[in-house]
Specification:
This protein has 204 residues and is an all-alpha fold. It has a single domain, classed as Glycolipid transfer protein (Glycolipid transfer protein, GLTP, Orthogonal Bundle), CATH 1.10.3520. The chain is 66% helix and 2% strand. Strands 1-2 form a two-stranded antiparallel sheet. This is Glycolipid transfer protein domain-containing protein.
């Protein structure tokens, strides 16, 4: 075993070519992000985690059905054009929103070391997911945000080796997390632009 960020695929290692963002590597890194919610340790975030998981499943199903046409996320979306439901296109759109929410929250926490996670996630929610949610879902998130663990406890889990080995230093963990978040933010921005330029979110 190894500290969490060393045990999952980093977004920093997701290949990006002229054709776009590598689908399988992106999905693997997204699986790693899902696990972060287990480290947060709050069942209140189960709604977010389940939503991200469900959208990963939709994108992966499309890849497995048409692997040669879906080796990048951009090609996957383009090749679903014309189909009635476009399940993977909608799933990826929502997946990006969930990833953006998590990314911005942790970037907030990294930028302000005195800020608790509840505040960092609340700020992120305001600028990412809130505008897409109805009154009921906003209430669910209000509860979840208040249930965030203390930042010291969360970052201790990120530094720890679950197998009982030596934990990594705060500096090393910060370097790994910042590289992970910077790459994730760049991928989300690239794909959001792709969706906007191609009007791929129309109808959802």
């Amino acid at each position: 075993m190894a500290p969490y960020l060393e045990s999952v695929t980093s977004f920093a290692n997701v290949p990006i070519t002229d054709e776009g963002v590598d689908t399988l590597a992106f999905l693997s890194a997204s699986d790693g992000l899902v696990g972060l919610f287990d480290l947060l340790g709050s069942t209140a975030f189960s709604v977010v985690q389940a939503d991200i998981k469900g959208n990963i499943v939709k994108v992966r199903a499309r890849y497995e059905a048409t692997p040669k046409l879906s080796n990048t996320l951009e090609k996957l979306v383009e090749n679903e054009k014309g189909e009635k439901k476009r399940t993977a296109t909608e799933g990826l759109m929502w997946l990006l929103r969930g990833l953006s929410f998590t990314c911005k929250a942790l970037q907030n926490a990294q930028a302000n070391k005195s800020e608790e996670l509840a505040a960092a996630f609340a700020k992120s929610y305001e600028v990412t997911l809130k505008k897409f949610h109805n009154f009921v879902v906003k209430g669910v998130f209000a509860v979840a945000l208040k249930a965030c663990p203390y930042r010291a406890d969360f970052f201790a889990k990120l530094r720890a080796d679950p197998a009982g080995g030596a934990e990594i230093s705060q500096e090393k963990m910060d370097d790994e997390l910042n590289a992970w978040l910077t790459a994730l933010a760049a991928i989300v921005a690239k794909l959001e632009k792709f969706y906007a330029d191609g009007n791929w979110g129309k109808g959802f």
